[in-house]
Write a structure and sequence with these properties.
Largest sheet: 4 strands, mixed
Oligomer: single chain
CATH architecture of the largest domain: Sandwich
Shape: elongated
Radius of gyration: 29 Å
Number of helices: 1
Number of strands: 7
Number of domains: 2
CATH class of the largest domain: Mainly Beta
Helix content: 10-25%
Strand order of the largest sheet: 2-1-4-3
CATH superfamily of the largest domain: Listeria-Bacteroides repeat domain
Order of helices and strands: HEEEEEEE
CATH topology of the largest domain: Immunoglobulin-like
Distance between the termini: 106 Å
Structural class: mainly beta
Amino acid sequence: MKRYIFSFLTIAVIVFASCRRDDRTFTVTFEANGGTPVPAAQTVKEGERATPPTPAPTLAEHIFGGWFTDDNTFANRWNFDVNTVTANVALYAKWDKVYAHDAGEWRTTLEPTCTDDGKKELRCTTCDELLDTEAIG
């Protein structure tokens, strides 16, 4: 009886050891969302980190905003220094539009007084970024 138990346990250990999956790999794909070049997919061992694609893709009139796991909200940035691969994952490029500033008209923001200068500002009509200021005497 002991012999059968020992044989059974030996077979169970061998079967279990052969079923271990220490060498599992996953695929990291990159969706450039219109940018070029589209990075090649990476095969990464489970628990290891993917490598940031180089060169980073480019898109006319846009700034590359990083790789994200969600394509619509871009709320979940992939951190190549921290995140490890535990399943197949698609990473999506985020693009931020670059606006050419359209200078509007000067606007007085502080009227001059007898003792103090006033101030006027020039702001972009597209994004309202402050482009210039001047003192009013």
